[in-house]
């Protein structure tokens, strides 16, 4: 075999053109240099970040700890934390991209500095990352961390599968990151509509990056959904009936079911698109009997339930936060649970509203439009239920509550514009415009993202044992809210003026004031993200003054607050017996909290396993090989991943037993510490006096 | 969004939008839009005002009533489910009426016969065929203001969406199939049109002009167009190449950028449709063109 033949086989279609700076070196022009510098800068930041991480891990000899305590751990809490860490990293990138796009449109009257291809990649990666590699990991991480604690379980039903789900999601994220260095990514948007993404129109590697990143993520999410659903069905503590579960668990259950049924259409759609592109099938082509409309239907059969996968966990978080920070029972628990179920069911009946303009009959569009509006009913009920939870409470405006308040007020505005869009005849004049872009950002930022950030502030002490700093947290929350309003309300206006989405440049001077205000909003959102980083740094530095070892910093109501912070590996020394809703509040009010159990038993916890990380690396290798036609790498990755999972089938020793004596020692020690810790009233909860031992709000004298 | 939209209108910036309608479809859409907005205000305003009030009134150590165990009220339940249900019922009725009345496939009510136009989406321009007049134009949709438009659409390439904001509804144009759209203008005027469905690097340049003329002007325009060169195979091939209308004008050596065709092959629209559906992928493989 000749050298060039070997290189062709080894590298597939990878060549120098893939490097982000190659174009400006090969064909220097003002535009190629500006775009080349931006793209190379982004790739450089990523490479630098990776190098600094590797250096730091080596310098402080942390590789072993990373491997043992994190990557191979099957502890649901650690897996949840890793999901959230991944979400924050990806959020940073996608926010940076959003800022570049906002800057481009702010100077985009008749031109701007970005090339159309570059802009196309930016909106495609921004959307793909925000949905699949920011929002999904964030909510999956929060469910992973919180749900087993709330139902009184020691782990999820399938701990290894949990690790595999995380690894697949991380592999997909890594693939999108790789496309920064070895370009290009798709310019076909986050929804990847054919025939534009077919080889006839997009012969480069872009859509392949998108297909495999999304496929890996959708597989991981399907598995996570199964895992969560079985956990909720089978692993609840004694007495924890369905209607005693905290509302967050109801939303987690509905989300799991949505994941199980909604992700497969996506996996199928991307697989069929891959068959079109790799093996010349004609599922979605214009030619050969293909039909791109099939793709639109399949994609949105996933895409609409996906919207509720994104929003329901946040609804769960808001329910917990509003009730806890109002020191009051959640108003209308049954209504809220039923409304959650209604939304989950209805979410499967509305997908056509994503393409009212595709030429269906008026009555079909009307049916789907009305189904869409119906979702407004249970959602409205929820909003009013949360307001009635505030009513006659004792509301503390802590960071999670600021997010919740911002959510309540902004989300209804997004809901109202959603109702506008649900009308086929109004969708005809707003579809594909920035009105739509403003609407879904209005649902996803105040809805999903504020919810996740509230969850982060709320449960952080349970994960790490200390509270987050309050001042930077408030700055972040207020800047997020104001930044969102400035960045997206102008987009409603632009949409009503007919400005289409995904426009690199425009020729209508009247758009300019709006895009300038939106740029200011983007700047404020970046500042908010900076505040979050500052908050984390300050909190870690001052962690000793913020420790809440007794575990109940917010006068919590559900089981996760009845255990130490950080939570021990086994969560509950003895599985709790549940007799009511808000079991921990009831226990505190009746003086039953923090009692020594009668007896301890040995606890079996899952042993670490390398299968997850191996599957992740293998999945990445396989996908990367497929993207660049490196067939040897794709085969190797597939074999490695399948081999690791098969080999796991022969591992018998999967449980590590923690002796009862060890559990007793840890738990009794903690109980003694709790009893020695002073109880604090709510107005001291953000002071160093808060060691996590609360006077129940209902027993506080005011 | 009422304040913002009001600002848009008051600012009088002269941008084309259905909120400043120039045709019967857009006019009905504007009415429907404000009606929906007003109804939604009934739901939104209480939340916007009561949320801050509740948080202030019931703040910790604020001395207000405190009922930590109060979590259910039958009357509130009925109101919470019933109120939104009632609003949605009204909205749904409005939706049904408007979706049916503004069906883009339904001809507009008019004494005049509609003008038949066939629109073909290319990368990144629109070809408008006038089958009854035997003429065609690129990125210029001329029509008599007194007659409604009956547009049949297809795409010779990827999905596109035909949209003239001041006149109303948009509809997709897709390869290998046709869709329909009925629009009209109240009076002579020039309206901006665009493709709103992203289709690659020239997407932002894919704009066209819809020009409503009085009858005489339109007839004069049609006579003028009929004198232009016919739409032959070479022109069709040039249309199929990536590029905006000015690129096409250069390729066809048209002065002044105006691209009109004075003669059409038989059944051109149907031919484009079937050829887009049958063409082997390689025929429009863009790797060749770059």
Automatic annotation (TrEMBL), chain A:
Residues 61-579 form the Cytochrome oxidase subunit I profile domain. Pfam families: COX1 (PF00115). Residues 682-702 are annotated as: Disordered. One of its GO terms (cellular component) is plasma membrane. The chain crosses the membrane at residues 33-58, 79-96, 123-146, 166-189, 209-233, 245-274, 294-318, 330-356, 362-381, 402-422, 434-459, 480-499, 511-538, 610-628. GO terms for biological process: aerobic respiration; electron transport coupled proton transport; respiratory electron transport chain. It is found in: Cell membrane. It is a multi-pass membrane protein. Keywords: Cell membrane, Copper, Electron transport, Heme, Iron, Membrane, Metal-binding, Respiratory chain, Transmembrane, Transmembrane helix, Transport. PROSITE patterns: COX1 (PS50855), COX1_CUB (PS00077). Belongs to the heme-copper respiratory oxidase family. This is Cbb3-type cytochrome c oxidase subunit I. It comes from Limimaricola litoreus. The lineage of its organism: Bacteria, Pseudomonadati, Pseudomonadota, Alphaproteobacteria, Rhodobacterales.
């Amino acid at each position: 075999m000749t050298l060039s033949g070997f290189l062709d086989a080894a590298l597939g279609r990878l060549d120098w053109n893939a490097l982000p700076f190659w174009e400006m070196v090969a064909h220097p022009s003002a535009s190629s240099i500006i775009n080349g510098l931006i793209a190379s800068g982004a790739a450089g930041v990523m490479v630098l970040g990776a190098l600094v991480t590797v250096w730091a891990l080596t310098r402080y000899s942390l590789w072993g700890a990373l491997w043992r305590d994190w990557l191979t751990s099957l502890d649901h809490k650690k897996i949840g934390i890793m999901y959230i860490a991944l979400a924050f990293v990806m959020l940073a990138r996608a926010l940076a991209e959003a800022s570049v796009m906002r800057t481009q449109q702010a100077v985009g009257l008749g031109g701007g500095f970005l090339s159309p291809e570059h802009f196309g990649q930016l909106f495609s990666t921004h959307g793909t990352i925000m949905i699949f590699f920011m929002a999904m990991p964030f909510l999956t991480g929060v469910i992973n961390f919180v749900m087993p604690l709330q139902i009184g379980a020691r782990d999820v039903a399938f701990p290894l599968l949990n690790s595999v789900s995380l690894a697949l999601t991380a592999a997909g994220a890594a693939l999108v990151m790789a496309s920064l260095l070895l370009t290009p990514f798709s310019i076909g948007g986050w929804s990847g509509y054919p025939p534009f993404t077919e080889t006839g129109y997009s012969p480069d590697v872009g859509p392949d990056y998108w297909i495999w990143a999304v496929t890996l993520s959708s597989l991981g999410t399907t598995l996570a959904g199964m895992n969560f659903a079985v956990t909720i069905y089978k692993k609840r503590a004694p007495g924890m009936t369905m209607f005693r579960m905290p509302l967050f668990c109801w939303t987690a259950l509905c989300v799991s079911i949505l994941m199980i049924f909604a992700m497969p259409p996506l996996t199928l759609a991307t697989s069929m698109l891959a068959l079109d592109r790799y093996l010349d099938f004609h599922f979605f082509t214009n030619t050969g009997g293909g039909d791109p409309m099939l793709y639109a239907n399949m994609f949105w059969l996933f895409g609409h339930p996906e919207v509720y996968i994104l929003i329901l966990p946040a609804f769960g978080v808001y329910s917990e936060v509003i009730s806890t920070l109002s020191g009051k029972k959640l108003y209308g628990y049954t209504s809220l649970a039923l409304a959650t179920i209604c939304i989950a069911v209805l979410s499967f009946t509305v997908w056509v509203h994503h393409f009212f303009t595709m030429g269906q009959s008026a009555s079909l569009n009307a049916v789907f439009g009305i189904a869409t509006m119906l979702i407004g009913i249970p959602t409205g009920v929820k909003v009013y239920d949360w307001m009635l939870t505030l009513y006659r409470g004792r509301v503390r405006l802590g960071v999670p509550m600021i997010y919740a308040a911002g959510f309540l007020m902004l989300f209804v505005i997004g809901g109202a514009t959603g109702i506008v869009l649900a009308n086929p005849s109004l969708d005809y004049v707003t579809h594909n415009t920035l009105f739509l872009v403003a609407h879904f950002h209005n649902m996803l930022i105040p809805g999903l993202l504020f919810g996740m950030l509230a969850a982060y502030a709320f449960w952080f002490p349970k994960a790490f044992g200390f509270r987050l700093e309050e001042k930077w947290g408030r700055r972040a929350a207020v800047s997020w809210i104001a930044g969102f309003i400035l960045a997206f309300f102008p987009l409603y206006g632009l949409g009503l003026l007919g400005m289409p989405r995904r426009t690199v440049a425009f020729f209508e001077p009247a758009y300019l004031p709006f895009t300038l205000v939106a740029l200011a909003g983007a700047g404020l959102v970046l500042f908010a993200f900076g505040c979050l980083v500052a908050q984390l740094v300050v909190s870690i530095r001052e962690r000793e003054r913020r420790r809440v070892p007794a575990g109940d910093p917010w006068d919590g109501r559900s089981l996760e607050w009845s255990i130490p912070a950080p939570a021990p590996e086994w969560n509950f020394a003895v599985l709790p017996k549940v007799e009511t809703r808000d079991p921990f509040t009831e226990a505190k009010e009746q003086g039953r909290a923090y009692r020594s159990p009668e007896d301890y038993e040995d606890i079996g916890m899952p042993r670490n396993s390398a299968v997850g990380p191996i599957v992740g690396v293998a999945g990445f290798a396989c996908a990367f090989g497929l993207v660049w036609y490196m067939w040897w790498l794709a085969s190797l990755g597939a074999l490695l991943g399948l081999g690791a999972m098969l080999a796991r089938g022969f591992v018998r020793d999967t449980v590590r037993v923690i002796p009862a004596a060890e559990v007793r020692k840890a738990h009794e020690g903690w109980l003694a510490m709790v009893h020695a810790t002073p109880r604090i009233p709510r107005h001291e909860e953000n002071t160093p006096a808060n060691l996590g031992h609360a006077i129940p709000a209902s027993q506080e004298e005011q | 969004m009422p304040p913002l939209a009001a600002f848009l209108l008051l600012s009088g910036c002269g941008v084309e939008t259905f909120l400043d309608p120039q045709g019967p479809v857009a006019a009905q859409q504007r009415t429907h839009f404000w009606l929906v907005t007003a109804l939604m205000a009934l739901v939104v305003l209480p939340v916007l005002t009561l949320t801050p009030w509740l948080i202030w009134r019931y703040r910790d150590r604020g001395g207000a009533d405190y009922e930590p165990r109060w979590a259910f009220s039958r009357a509130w339940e009925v109101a919470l489910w019933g109120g939104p249900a009632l609003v949605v019922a009204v909205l749904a009725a409005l939706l049904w009426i408007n979706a049916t009345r503004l069906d883009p496939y339904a001809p507009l009510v008019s004494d005049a016969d509609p003008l038949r136009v066939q629109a073909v989406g290319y990368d990144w321009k629109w070809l408008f065929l006038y089958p009854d007049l035997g003429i065609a134009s690129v990125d210029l949709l001329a029509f008599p203001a007194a007659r409604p438009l009956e547009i049949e659409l297809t795409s010779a390439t990827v999905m596109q969406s035909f949209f003239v904001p001041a006149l109303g509804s948009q509809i997709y144009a897709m390869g290998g199939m046709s869709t329909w759209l009925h629009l009209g203008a109240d009076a002579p005027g020039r309206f901006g049109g665009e493709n709103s469905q992203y289709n690659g690097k020239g997407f932002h340049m894919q704009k066209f002009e819809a020009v409503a003329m009085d009858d005489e002007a339109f007839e004069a325009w049609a006579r003028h167009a009929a004198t232009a060169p016919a739409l032959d195979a070479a022109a069709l091939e040039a249309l199929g190449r990536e590029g905006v209308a000015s690129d096409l004008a250069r390729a066809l050596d048209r002065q002044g950028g105006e691209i009109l065709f004075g003669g059409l092959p038989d059944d051109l629209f149907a031919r484009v449709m079937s050829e887009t559906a049958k063409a082997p992928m390689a025929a429009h493989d863009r790797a060749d063109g770059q």
